């Protein structure tokens, strides 16, 4: 990076009155950049301090900025529609910001049609790691040993089928209380992870969604599973997977 960019871009919104900055955004130390242009797409951004800009090569400073970026998006998305950007979009000046807004306009409008009035929740179902059960009675001969192995494999197969059926049922039921679903990839995923799902939920339907999702927690536990719901998040999984770059 040849120069330290002074502005970090969090996401895009549709502007309101030219020159107006919403009080909510002031409370979160953000600014609406790009109002009063020929288009009404504006950027939600935060200007870095000189110390932050000078420390952009420091991993700890980058981590702190990434956390700030996520917090800003989460605070604003709770009540306002915003197309979130992944952390790492910077601009060197207000002029560069205006160009970024122009570039993003078609994608922003398309994304807002999908996510307006909606939030993202994550749902994960995973198998609880357990040690193999130790049998109280040891097989006394080869035939008993082979039979015990066959029985154990059949038991494991039935348990696996029950867990898979449960995960599929949860996904189907949640599909009735959300607008859309998106499977999520996870580099750390293993065979123990049965469901890793993003759900797009209407703000007015959040309570019903959480009630339905959490109602399956006891059933999950009885099958040796954990059911975890995270969110609400900005709708990262339901906008185009891209990162707009400003000047560097």
- Indicate the structural class: alpha+beta
CATH fold-type name of the largest domain: Alpha-Beta Plaits
Could you say how many structural domains there are in total?
A: 2
Give average pLDDT, whole number: 79
Question: How many DSSP E strands?
Answer: 9
CATH architecture of the largest domain: 2-Layer Sandwich
Distance between the termini: 6 Å
Secondary structure tally, helices: 7
| Mass-distribution shape | elongated
CATH class of the largest domain: Alpha Beta
For the sheet with most strands, the description reads:
5 strands, antiparallel
- Runs in which pLDDT lies below 50 for 5 or more consecutive residues are 17-29, 242-248
Order of helices and strands: EHEEHHEEHEHEEHHE
Estimate what percentage of residues fall within beta strands: 15-25%
Descriptive account of the structure:
The protein is built from seven helices and nine strands, in the order βαββααββαβαββααβ. With 248 residues, it is of the alpha+beta class. The protein has two domains: 7-116; 118-236, 2-Layer Sandwich (Alpha-Beta Plaits). A hairpin with a 7-residue loop joins strand 2 (31-33) and strand 3. The protein is elongated.
